[in-house]
Amino acid sequence: MTNQAAGAARAYLRIATEEAFAPPELISMWRDMIDHGTCDDPGFVSMVGFYTAARTERTRFVFERLQDLGDLRLADMDAAGIDRQIISLTAPGTQILDTADAVTMARLANDQLAEACRAHPDRFSGLTAIAPQDPGSAAAEIERGRRELGFHGVIINAHTHGEYLDDPKFWPIFEAAEALDTPIYLHPSTPSRNMIGPLLEAGLDGAIYGFAVDTGMHVLRIITAGVFDRFPSLRLVVGHLGEALPFWLYRLDYMHAATVRARRYATMKPIQRKPSEYLRENVWITSSGVAWAPAIMFCREVLGPDRVLYAMDYPYQYVPDEVTAHENLPLTVEEKADLFQRNAQRVFCL
């Protein structure tokens, strides 16, 4: 039975929505930066330095799969029962580079991914990589990705040299994404140098916790800065079940209102709605890396079943049994069709 036939037999397709790749040219550039000590960002040195130097079974698997947009990836998808991947440039992407190299590498990555999507149109969809270092160029690349390359969203890998997207200088990126009706996937990277110290010394800077700390804060900065008031149709997608934010909805609303009333911070000004309302209306979350029924069901309850999408987090967390864990959720066939297929189709306009 072909993979597409298997999908039809189960009444829905399985679309994995946070699946990574990296061009060999970018990995080579990262390695040069590590080898020559030209980047002193502690998160980059810790994460990329480990993956480029280690020769364990895990690091070999990850680096081999990141660079493959063909047979290896397709075989892994088939083995896990994944019908389609939405593929995006892995962290830290271009955002650790200088501006000129970042702009060039974003275009190269997008061209390579577009070629793979054309070669496998029924299996791969892509997100546009950008260089936030140059917001004008990033906006233009979002348009090229949408109109010329046929991509279905934008990938941004956390902060850019310690700067976050709530800074209005980055808002041309939001303007372009909203105008083109293309969602932004805000993916983690290691925390910025101003945050990473205590996490790094305890070994907590990566996916175990640091990713969520930095990305959850990033989402809240976007919300409290009024980005969604300025761009009300903007769609933001966040992985790992929303980086824990769904579990804080009550406290976020209460303490945001109290902080605004207190006038303690010049940056904390009134916004039109509660933080939880933006999370329910402008943000979608994926289950990448969190195949845990209680958490998935809670997020569906507090955000709405149309807000939660399936993801695997390939190749970093390639565990085919986690597909079975999602299939075993106490959901009807129609609800599983939304989780695995229809929510992704709606958000990413597939």
How is this structure best described in words?
It is a single chain. With 350 residues, the chain is α/β, with parallel strands linked by helices. The chain has one domain: Metal-dependent hydrolases (TIM Barrel, Alpha-Beta Barrel), CATH 3.20.20. The strands form two sheets. A six-stranded parallel sheet has the order 4-5-6-7-8-9. A three-stranded parallel sheet has the order 1-2-3. Strand 8, helix 15 and strand 9 form a beta-alpha-beta unit. Helix 6 packs parallel to helix 7.
CATH homologous superfamily descriptor: Metal-dependent hydrolases
Sequence stretches where pLDDT stays below 50 over 5 or more residues: none
CATH topology type: TIM Barrel
Task: Compute the number of helices.
Answer: 17
CATH-derived architecture: Alpha-Beta Barrel
| Integer average pLDDT | 96
Strand content: 5-15%
Strand order of the largest sheet: 4-5-6-7-8-9
Assign an overall shape.
globular
State the major sheet.
6 strands, parallel
Distance between the termini: 24 Å
Category from helices, strands and their pairing: alpha/beta
Number of domains: 1
Number of strands: 9
CATH class: Alpha Beta
Task: Report the helical percentage.
Answer: 40-55%
Helix and strand run: HEHHHHEHEEHEHEHHHEHHHEHEHH
Radius of gyration: 19 Å
